[in-house]
Each structure stands twice: as structure tokens, then as C-alpha cells.
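TICKET #2291
ISSUE: user wants both folds in one file
ATTACHMENT 1:
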Amino acid sequence: MKYFTIKKDILATLAYFNMFEYPLRKNEIFGFLGHCDDYREFEGALRNLLEDSLVFKIGDFYSLHNNYKIAARRYRGNENARRMLGKAKRGATIISAFPFVRAVGISGSLSKLYADENSDIDYFVITTANRLWIARTLLHIFKKLTFLFNKQHYFCMNYFIDDVEPDILEKNIYTATEIVTLLPIRGGNIFDKFYKVNNWTQTFFPNKNIGTTTVPPPWKNWLKYLIEKILDNRLGDSLDNFLMNLTARSWDKKTMTNKLDSKGMLLGMHTGKHFSKPNPAFFQKKILQRYEKSLSELFGKYEISRSYQTKGK
């Protein structure tokens, strides 16, 4: 029964990344398993799945489909990501220099070391307490300036939290995957706290080691220090609340008018005093629904295959 569970776990892991056409290496599959910490047992289960043609090995990668194109796609994507990471790290350092920013990490596809010709550089930003909306507004003014130089795709800052409430509220496989694949660039001590608060990800991925980081603190400068000093009072409190309400109204209007982003996705933001993030009712919900459907179909196929093999014996 345990062996059967491990094989289903492997299939579920591959099914999740299959939605993004992203085959995995053997050690990556093991890292994302939820019910197996014995590598030899894992290798045995994977070998059985290969023999049953439920999993296919293509070069260095494993997939639910015997399709070389997705392996070639990953090879190209990994090479593109390696070239883009330098720009992403410099971008994260610039972001960390803004007032009230305490930590910056790379998120999205680049955090999984994948990028194609249309990929943006996504950042996960942690701010100081009760100044998230000032920090976010300053950063988005900066982003508008990047349009003048066609560099806007290098500064996609769409997920903010502050260090009062670093707990990610939606606890599911999508958010767990995003957390454990984050690439911290600045603010190591803040990320230590973030990982400690979000150790619930271990229930999804017990083989993933997250915790202490050795990345440097945010970039310090006199302008950042001066602005933080000036707004360390009731004026700062009022300004942060004003910018939060102003931004929330603007995004509510975009959602109500069914405005789409450059990729054809419905624009929507979930806002609160301590967070600003894409509305989970949109992309995240669709991913989870698609994953559940994929698992249902896959496990149905696996049960039929297992039943047939049992009868044959």
C-alpha cells in the first residue's frame, strides 16, 4: 500500500508541473513529494511507473507524456533563465533600495529557472509594518518610468506583504509551490521570519528544506533613510491608508469593467492593510480546478491500469 501511495504521489507531482509543460528531473520530483522521504523507495516506484508507461524519461527529464518537445522547451527555458537571472538580481537590489522595502525575492516562472521570450521578471516584496502602500506606490511610479525605456517587463511587482502579517492566507499546493521555489535576493533575516511563519508548506512538501538564508540586507541609501524618517509618524499612517483605499478603488473599477492584462487575463487584485496580491479567485483558482480535474483523470487511468495488471497476474 505504501508503494502504491508513492507512485500516486509521483504522478500527482508530475501532473502539477505538466500543467505548465515543465518536465522534472529525478531529484526535483523527490523534492516535491508529499509522502516519501526514502530515496531508494522513490526510485523503485519511479522505475515501476516507467515500466508501466505511465511516466516517460526524456533525456534528463521525466514527464507524463513521451514528447521530446517539452523537454527541448525546458532546456531552452533554463538557458534563457540563466541569462535573465543577472538582470533579475540587479532589479531586486534596486527595488530593495526603495523606502520601507525590507526584503525582495524572485517569484513566478523565473524562480523555477524557466523563461521564454515573453517572460516577465516577477518579484515578491516584503515591506516594513504599515507602510506597504507607500512602498508599493513609489515602486509603481518607478515602474511607469521604465516604460520610457521599454524595461517594464523587468519590474513586475505584483505581490506585496508586510512584516506584521507575513503568513500567506491561501494554503494550497499552488501557494506552497510558489513559497518553496522563491529565490530570496535581499533581506535574509526577513525571509527567515517569513519561512518560519509559513512552515505549513512542509505538509505539502516535507522534502523541501526552507528556512535560513544568507542573502544580504536591503540596499541602504540616504534618500531611503530620509523618507522613512519623515513618514515615521501619523502623517505616514494617514498616507498609507489613503494610498491603500485609492489603489483598491482603482483596481475594483478595472475588475468591474472586465479589463484584461497584456496576456489576456482578467485584471484583479486582492487588497488589505498588510497585503497586495493578485486576486486568488482568478488565476490561482483556475489552476487548482485544472489540477483537480487532471488528478481525477490521471488516477482513474492509473486505477484501470493497476486493476488490469492485477487480473493479469
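ATTACHMENT 2:
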Amino acid sequence: MKKLPFIFVLLSMISTLSFSQQNNEEKEQKKFGITFKGFVRSDYWYDSRQIVGSREELFCFFPKNVLPDANGKDINGEDYVNFSPISSRLTGTITTPDAFGAKTSGVVEADFTGVTNADINGFRLRHAYGQLKWEKSELMFGQYWHPMFVPEVFPSVISLNTGAPFQPFIRNPLISYKRYFKKLNMQLALIGQRDNTNDGPLGYNAVYMRNALVPNIHLQLQYKGDHHVFGVAGDWKTLRPKLVNDSLTITRNKISSYSAMAYWKFSKEKFTWRMKAIYGQNMTEHLLLGGYAVHSFDSLSGNESYTPTNHLFVWGNLVYGKKYQAGLFAGFAKNMGTSHTNIGKYYSRGNDIAYLYRIAPSFSWVSNSMQISFEPEYTVAAYGTPNNKGIVQNTNEVANLRLLLTFFYFF
């Protein structure tokens, strides 16, 4: 009977340890799962003329060219008003236990802008990726911003266009590897196409890259300091515009293009300054100007050869403040023509625009989870006639003023 108190004490200790271990396991499990955040966004805007845009013109590229009616009045000179909440967003951040000796994480993000203009209000996938992060390297797989976007350095503007068509705006299926060297990192990415695609004989379509059998290849070097971010990058892709030519025989003619980029950001306390420059060929899928043209056509074989357009894009962005924020965005794009002569057949955006520029100041008032923003956006396109090298001549400037009021409710 003397052994009973000892047994009770032992059982009590075992029970306490078991309960403690169970609590620790539950706490550990709570670290993993998915958490949601996002925002409700509602845009209200006025355009002084008709524009080239998408998603009910919420996404503004540039003003349309002059189009005279029967009396000589400009049809595209008519103004435009719209309201839209479709860019409201939901983001799920995923955390899971370590795998392959790496910290793991992931994101699934969607909004209501749809995949195409016909799919407005559709729940559209933006990002969906998993990530493995070791001490000195990182592997990402899924869909995310194209590396030309650069999440660390993009314009802080109110408009949904996020600086396009001067700043790339594109998400892609990809696999990306980063190697870290203290404050320096190097990224190599292999990239496909899905929602953002190149133009071609079948219209905008991802099949041109898939039929070329080669992914878009991107290499980037980036430095991150206490107040500075600086980077340079090179990008290369190949398209196969047609499987079958006009003579109904298989054609394997392709077009390759490259782009080069440099960017910089300085931030300290309430002040941020960002800038980027890109010299690029055939950048239609980035929602920029450009594409390619038919260089030559062989009437006997029915085969076409192609030549890319060349464009220069530069922008700068200043932002100051926290509760009360003031910003200024300025962008410029220049059409440098095609690499070789062309026969006047283009698969391109804005091939009749010689240059494009935009000035957009912004003002925001932030109060906890609410933000009210106002942004006048003035965009000018110089329309003309391209010659056989794609150089646009005899230009005429056309301007649009957008007045944008936006409400955000973050959660």
C-alpha cells in the first residue's frame, strides 16, 4: 500500500508532461496554415478623351488617335466616366514546416478583374507560388511577377496600371533560383506565358512561346543596402509565330529578342525615390509598346521572316509622407524602329506612336485601415506614320487627362 502514493505521483507527472507536450505540439501547429489579407478598392475616374485601355478602361495605356467623323469632328475626342470596384483583392499567405532543409512559404492571390475584358468580375488568379529558402539561396515555383517588374522597385502610383506602359506589368508561370552573397543576390529564371502574352497571327496567345520550345530566360543582379536598391538585368525570349505558312506547309521560322534593364531606389524615413530604364525588343506581353513586324515574305514558299521593334522606356517616381502622402510619377517611351526593314505588317502595340510620356502627381490620406487617394494623370502620345524601318514620322501629339479618385479599405 505504501507504493500507491508513489504510483499516483508518477502518473501525475506523466500526465502533466503529456499535456505539456500536447500543448507545445498545438502551439507548433498553429504556426502553420494560411492567413488572409487584402483590400476593398473602389475607383472613380474621368477621361478627357477615349483611351486605349482594358477592364472597362480602368487600366489606362494611352489616348486613342484622332478619328474624324463625317463632319470632321474627332470621335475619340469625346470624354468618358466610369466607376469600378473590380480590383479588390484577396491574398492568402501560407506557412508550413521546413522541407529539404529550407524554410517554406507560399502565396495564393486573386482579384475580380477577370482574365480578359469579357471576363470582368471573374475571380482571377494573380499569384500562386511556393518558396524554399535556405541560408544562402532561394527557389520559387508557380506564378509571380516577371523579374522585369522588380517587386523591390516599381512606381508607387494610384492607377491600376502601376506605371504601364513605361513600367512592365506582367505575371508569369516561372521557376526562379536566387543566390545570396551578403548584400548582393543573383537571380536566374525560366519563364512561360499564360495571361500576359505576345501578339501574333492568332492574336494575343501563349502558343507562340510554347511552340518555340524555349522558355523566356532572365538573369538579374541586385544589390540591397540600408537605403539603396540597385540592379541590372538581361532578358531573352524566342517565339514561333506560325506552325503552318500560307502554302499550308510546316514552317519553323522564329523570332528572338532581348531586353536590358537597370534600376535604382533610395529610401530614408518618409522619402522614397525610384527610377528604371529599359531598352527592349518585342515587349508586348509586358503591357509596353512594341512587338515585331514581318521582315520579308516569300511568295513561292509562303514563309515569313520577322524583325523585332526596339523601344526605350524610362521613368522616375518620388514619394514623401506616411499619413499624408504626396507622389510624382514621370515616364517616357521612345520608338526606335525595327531592327531590319519590314513590309508594313505588324504584331505590335503602338507601332504608329513615335513617343509617349506621362506626368502623374498623387495625393493620399491614410487613416489606419483606410486610404483616400487622388491622382491626375496626363498622358501624351505622338501618332504618325511608320516607315519601312518602323521609324514613326509626321507626328501629331494627342493628350488625355485622367482624374482618378480611389478609396481603399485594407484588412
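RESOLUTION: both attachments delivered.
EXTRA DETAIL ON ATTACHMENT 2: The domain at 31-410 is CATH 2.40.160.10 (Porin).
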